[in-house]
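Example 192.
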Amino acid sequence: MLNKLILVVALTAVAGVTGGFSQNRQVLAEAERVTQDRFTIGLRTPKGANVYAVRQPNAQMLAAIDKGLDDLFVIARKNGYSRRLRHRDYSVFIGKADRTRDSAGTYSPDIAVGAAQYAGTDYDQGGFIYAAGMVIAFNPMAFVIAEHERAYARVSDLVRFEGEHLVLFHNDRRRYQQTADHSQGGGHPILQ
Ligand SMILES: [Zn+2]
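Predicted structure in complex with zinc ion:
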């Protein structure tokens, strides 16, 4: 389903030998390249996740991010995974929505990104696709979602879903590889 599409874009892993500040600069640059947004707001959720935004996010948005990570950590532990299960391990970029409704008219703030491996699939809008979220970096871990003004449960779902790719990358590389590309079918939730 189009409005459930969560895309992972393959990218060069950020080198682990550089300092944290340098890594964060690279991740920020990648997020700005992918979204064409400028993330001038930086803050933390009440539980400590890192948030970068175009506009100041409201309390519901931050709480929804925390809840999505809470849900992710519960299901990850249930699957026997233990690495990278702290809120502060995650950076969430909140970009501008490139659309707020899907083709069926449902509220669905999404981000337009290059079609890449989705070119020619049902998702392809003519060189780009609408993605609900996208992984930006694996180390440090970061992903982007769009601004929401309501439907905060959707935000929690997106955070959990993007987080699945990151948890799998750090805990179960084989399963990560099998589920990273949705263009061949398969979607979220991956972890049950
Ligand atoms: Zn996905």
